[in-house]
Each structure stands twice: as structure tokens, then as C-alpha cells.
Specification:
- The protein folds into two domains: 166 residues, Porin, CATH 2.40.160; 121 residues, Lysozyme (Orthogonal Bundle), CATH 1.10.530.
- The protein has seven helices and twelve strands.
- With 294 residues, the chain is α+β, with helices and mostly antiparallel strands.
- Helix 5 packs across helix 6.
- Strands 1-2-3-4-5-6-7-8-9-10-11-12 form a twelve-stranded antiparallel β-barrel.
């Protein structure tokens, strides 16, 4: 019994979210997963689809609308879950420190990202009394521009944003985001198969669901309201039984999920190791471990 408890704790600490691509929405590439239990083997594919969501003009404020459209094009190419190697997040690529200063809890949230970038740009325009300098400061940082003036890269960036703004001023551009479909099959006492889906609702929340067919048919639907870019609550149902929990992740490196419901306790986790993910957890009174390859 003690060994089982230790293994459960290690699964939680060293792994993250079994078979849940919400951890890597920023990188919509096909992946496949092997998951092992004592009496069951599961193979699944993660098939991404980058889709257009809605016209960006619906979400832009009247002031700075044209500049913001150009900035978003340059920063993220209108992709909601864009994530840079340096950690800049979302449509407007806010760094964590900048997002914190602006009070933006979730830079992947379309509304918060656009609002935060608009307020930031207005403050920079007021400070430097110049659109070019304000955009350069958005890229290089206001302290650097105030002390040394804009650098060559900052001026190039500002020109690129203004050129994109002119190009898209009278053109309709759409937000883009990824949805994942996960067909799978399981081999064990019974052969079973099914399909799950995972999608983002403007970064405000995630919606997941699925259908499984074996000796019986089961289904689930979960909603993940995003509190921050790292923390989500979970509400939903599995086979008409209410389920709740939380989801913590650090995109794209790790995540952990806890689900609690009637006769249900599911703890699962996933961690990136080099070019693949290790997954593990405890669900339906069974330990499981697996690998996701992208």
C-alpha cells in the first residue's frame, strides 16, 4: 500500500496531464500518445486544426484600432495562443512582467490581451508624444527608449507594424486558434474506441468533450474557465454525473489536472522532456503512464 501511495505522489510531481493537448495549444502539430495501465493499452492521435474564429475588428477599440491590427499581425499573426521562446504570450505578445503591470491575468484571453496592449500603447504615446517611438518602446521597452532613444531594431519593428497597419486597414482579418481532435482505441478486457475534442473559446475558457464506445457508451463534457494563463477551474459532467476540479499548466512544458466527482478521483499530469512528453496519473482506481511524441 505504501508503494502504491509513493508511486501516486511521484506521478503527480513528475508528470502532467495525460492525453490533454491544452498544454500545447501554442504548437498545433500532429502528435501521438501511448498510454499504459496494468490491464490496458491505449493509443491515440492528436490532430490539430487551426481555424478562423471571428473578425479581429469586432474586438478592437476605436482608438488605436488600425495600429493594434498591424501590431497583432506582426506579433502573433492573429494566433490567439502564440507563445515566443522568451515567454511573450497571446495576440499582442505581452511578457509576463508587462502583463502583471497592466493587470492582465491571462494574456491568452483575447479581450484582456487587446485591452492591455491598447492601454499600454496609449501610455507610451502619451509619454513619447510619437507613434513611432511608442511602437519602438513597445518592442524594446520604454526605459531603453527613454534613456538611449530607439535602436535600429526598434525602428524597423515600428515601420513593420505601421506597414502592416496600412495593409490591413481596409481588409478583414480573423483571429486564429487551434482545436485538437483525439481519435483513440484501447486494448484490454474489452476493445474500445472513441474520440475527444479540445478547443479554446477566445482564450476565456476551454471546452473539451468526448465519446467512448466499448461494452457500453460513455461521454463527457468539461468547461475550463481560465482564471489566469496558468490556472483554470473545471466544471462538467461524465455520464450525467457532475464533475469538478482544477487545471494548472505552464505552457508548453507541464500541466496537472484534478477531477473529483461521484465515485471518481482522477489526478493526471504531463511534463515535457526534450522532444516528447511523459504522462502519468491515477484514474478509475488505476495508475497509468504514457508518452506523447510531437
Amino acid at each position: 500500500m505504501r508503494k502504491i501511495l509513493c508511486l501516486s505522489l511521484l506521478s503527480v510531481v513528475f508528470s502532467v496531464l495525460v492525453s490533454n493537448p491544452l498544454v500545447f495549444l501554442n504548437d498545433p502539430r500532429t502528435a501521438f500518445c501511448f498510454d499504459f495501465q496494468v490491464d490496458r493499452f491505449r493509443f491515440s492521435l492528436f490532430l490539430p486544426l487551426v481555424r478562423s474564429i471571428a473578425p479581429i475588428d469586432w474586438f478592437l477599440p476605436k482608438e488605436n484600432a488600425v495600429i493594434l491590427k498591424g501590431l497583432i499581425k506582426v506579433e502573433s499573426d492573429f494566433f490567439v495562443h502564440a507563445l515566443s521562446e522568451k515567454g511573450a504570450m497571446g495576440l499582442t505578445q505581452l511578457m509576463p512582467s508587462t502583463a502583471k503591470e497592466l493587470g492582465v491575468l491571462n494574456p491568452f484571453n483575447v479581450f484582456q490581451s487587446v485591452d492591455g496592449a491598447n492601454r499600454y500603447l496609449k501610455d507610451l504615446q502619451k509619454r513619447f508624444n510619437s507613434v513611432n517611438l511608442a511602437i519602438a518602446a513597445y518592442y524594446e521597452g520604454p526605459t531603453r527608449v527613454a534613456r538611449q532613444g530607439p535602436g535600429v531594431e526598434g525602428l524597423k519593428y515600428a515601420q513593420k507594424v505601421l506597414n502592416s497597419a496600412r495593409d490591413f486597414e481596409n481588409r478583414t482579418a480573423f483571429f486564429k486558434d487551434a482545436v485538437y481532435f483525439e481519435p483513440y482505441f484501447e486494448l484490454g478486457k474489452h476493445f474500445s474506441g472513441g474520440v475527444n475534442f479540445y478547443l479554446s473559446l477566445l482564450g476565456v475558457a476551454y471546452l473539451t468533450g468526448g465519446l467512448n464506445v466499448s461494452d457500453r457508451v460513455s461521454q463527457h463534457v468539461f468547461v475550463y474557465p481560465n482564471i489566469t494563463d496558468s490556472v483554470s477551474l473545471i466544471f462538467g459532467e461524465r455520464d450525467l454525473n457532475l464533475v469538478g476540479g482544477f487545471f494548472f499548466r505552464k505552457m508548453p512544458d507541464f500541466g496537472i489536472q484534478l477531477l473529483v466527482g461521484k465515485n471518481e478521483l482522477d489526478v493526471s499530469a504531463l511534463a515535457r522532456v526534450w522532444r516528447f512528453y511523459i504522462t502519468a496519473g491515477f484514474s478509475q482506481q488505476r495508475l497509468h503512464v504514457g508518452f506523447i511524441f510531437k
